[in-house]
Here is the input.
Amino acid sequence: MNIEQLKIDYLHQLTMQGFSEGTIYNRKIYLQQFISFLKDQDINRETIYLYQVKISKKKTSSLSIYDKLSVLHCFLNWLYSSGYLLTHLSSVITFPKRKYQLQRRILTEKEIKIILSLPDTRSSKGIRDRALLELLYSTGIRRSELVGLNLYDLNTDEGMLRVLGKGNKERIVPIGNSAIKWTLRYIEKVRWPYNLKEAALFLGLSQRQRLTPKILNLIIREYAAMSHIKKVITPHTFRHTCATHLLNYGADIRYVQELLGHASPETTQIYTRVVIRDLQKVHRQTHPRSIKK
Here is the structure.
C-alpha cells in the first residue's frame, strides 16, 4: 500500500466532491504529519495509538489535536470503505474533549457596529467593503461562499441569496435590509459597468476579477486593526457573531442550522453554549440570590 499515493487519491476525491481549497489544504497538511510519523511502518492499531500519544504530548491545544484526529478519522474511514483496510481502524481514535473558545471570536452588537462603520463609503473601496461586511454579518455565510457569489445569486426583490456551500450543496438564505441596501449601492456605483463578462458579485478594484479569499482576509484584517477591538476577527468571526446574535434574539436553533448550512444540529449547538454562558453571567450579576455582596 503506497500511503503517499492513497493520500493523493483521497484529496482528489475531496476536490471532486466540491470541498473548498482551504479544507483540502488543511487535510493535506495534517495527513502529511501522520505519514511522516509512520515512516515505513504500516497503518495498524498500534501506530494509530502511538500517533495519538505523540501529538497529545506536544504543547498543542485540545482543539488542534481534535482537528488533526478528525482528519485522520475521515481518512481511515475512506481507506476502509475503499477496500484498502480490512478493519475499521478509525475506532481506535480517542478524541479529546473539545473546548470551544467561541467567546473571544464573537463580537458584541456595539463592536459589530464599530466594524461596519469603518469603511469610508465616499470611496469605491469603502462602498464595496461595507457591502461585503454587511453581507457577512447578515447571512453568516463562509468566506469561500462569499467570494463564490455571482450576480445572479442575489435576489433583492425577495431578499434572498443563493449560496453554494460545502460539497456543492446549494441553499437559500435571507438577507437583511441593511445588507441589501449596501449591496445594491455597491452594484450600482462600483460594480457596474466594469467587466460585464465576469459573473462574480464582488470584484477586486484593480484587476476587476473575482475577489479571492486571500484578499478578503486582508480586508477584514485591515478593519480589525482599525477597530482596536481586542478579539480575533476573521471572516468566520462574522459567521459566529451572526449565529449568536440570532439565538440571543430568540431564533430557533433549527433555523440557524439551515441558515449556516450545517449538516448536523450538533455543530450549531456550540452557539447555544455561548448564549447560555452569557445568560449565566447576567443571572449572577443581577439576580438577588446570586449577587455577591
The first helix runs from residue 3 to 16.
